[in-house]
Specification:
Layout lengths: L19 H7 L12 E5 L6 E7 L5 E6 L6 E7 L2 E4 L10 E6 L5 E6 L5 E7 L2 E6 L2 E10 L5 E7 L4 E7 L2 E9 L7 E2 L5 E7 L2 E8 L2 E6 L5 E6 L5 E6 L5 E7 L2 E6 L8 E6 L5 E6 L5 E7 L2 E4 L10 E5 L5 E6 L6 E6 L1
Antiparallel strand pairs: 1-28, 2-3, 3-4, 4-5, 6-7, 7-8, 8-9, 10-11, 11-12, 12-13, 14-15, 15-16, 16-17, 18-19, 19-20, 20-21, 22-23, 23-24, 24-25, 26-27, 27-28
Length: 342
């Protein structure tokens, strides 16, 4: 199962408060039990000022990025059974790296400042970092990896345009779908289906790609992109709606559904992750201001603050065990710390 993550995610959210009985029903997990979450703070690298998670696998391993003490640089990290590990970088003279995803084998992908200039997509495995190169341009970025080692991301070509790529067994291939939006992720599931955002004329649309064929998932009002795809091909993400706000969406079997917001009034929401049980998590604006982590399940919208998630948390992803990753404020100034909710 593929779990994804945060790049390009709109963290402002939305709102309708459910009746207490509906909320209790909706918060039931896949085994029928009600989830009450416990927070595990993941810390920061070397006591740095902040950390942000980006993905987790089904073993509750977490990857993300942490700013270093007295430095503007951030390094990719992996958290495993209480241990936070610095994954390092390609260029010691420009010590920057970023982790985007982790699969169930523990392989991690992201990017790092390259010695040749620009940034290159990288793979961390077996204690080593592999530079994946680029499609003829200066920079590339890996954003997702499935359990078969297929990696997807974006890369500059020799013309400077950013194209989607797939990498496997040492070979990077242009997907052939033209220019893609670099501020949003590309994600891949274990079937090899890829989702993301692509320009269609003057509009950004969510798409799903499979075996050389691209399906335009569209949007609800001229702007949309995918954040995650599960192994059944269901895609979730963010779309503008006719009111002008942006809402979380789910796309399944040819239909894009507005997942709404907490409170039902004006505001934003975003669907950031989906697991193979169809549980979707993200964030939603709430009446009166602020944003809460939310769960969409069985057609209902659950405010996760009723299940032990902090009102200050941004929620980025969910795995097949219904564990969550998010971030919490460390104090004034906007710094945040990665958190695992189990």
């Amino acid at each position: 199962m593929r779990i994804m993550r945060t790049a390009g995610v709109v963290t402002a959210a939305t709102g309708i408060l459910l009746a207490a009985g509906a909320t209790a029903t909706a918060s039931a997990g896949v085994d029928g039990a009600t989830h009450v979450y416990r927070a595990i703070l993941l810390g920061t690298l070397a006591g740095g000022p902040s950390s942000i998670p980006t993905a987790l696998n089904d073993r509750d391993d977490v990857v993300g990025n942490s700013q270093l003490p007295d430095s503007r640089f951030s390094h990719a990290f992996r958290w495993h059974r209480g241990q936070l590990t610095d994954l390092g970088m390609l260029n010691p003279d420009f010590p920057v790296s970023s982790a985007s995803d982790i699969n169930n084998l523990g392989q991690v992908v992201g990017d790092s400042a390259a010695i040749s200039g620009g940034f290159h997509a990288v793979l961390w495995q077996h204690g080593t970092m592999v530079d994946l190169g680029a499609l003829g341009g200066a920079s590339s970025r890996a954003t997702s990896i499935n359990d078969f080692g297929q990696i997807v991301g974006t890369s500059q070509t020799s013309t400077g345009a950013w194209h989607a790529f797939s990498w496997k067994h040492g070979v990077m291939v242009d997907l052939g779908i033209g220019a893609v939006e670099t501020g949003t992720p590309l994600v891949v599931n274990n079937v090899g289906q890829i989702a993301g955002g692509v320009m269609v004329g003057t509009e950004l649309h969510a798409f799903r790609w499979q075996r050389g064929y691209l399906t335009d998932l569209g949007s609800l009002a001229g702007f949309g992109y995918a954040n995650a795809i599960n192994d059944f091909g269901t895609v979730v993400g963010f779309t503008r709606v006719p009111s002008g706000w942006g809402h979380a969406f789910s796309w399944r079997r040819g239909t894009m559904t507005d997942l709404g917001i907490l409170g039902g009034g004006p505001g934003y929401s975003s669907a950031n992750s989906i697991n193979d049980f169809g549980q979707v998590v993200g964030n939603s604006d709430v009446p009166g201001g602020g944003s809460h982590g939310v769960l969409w399940q069985r057609g209902l919208l659950v405010d996760l603050t009723t299940r032990g998630v902090s009102p200050d948390a941004f929620v980025y992803a969910i795995n097949s065990r219904s564990a969550l990753i998010g971030s919490l404020p460390l104090g004034p100034g906007g710094a945040r710390q990665a958190v695992l909710y189990v």
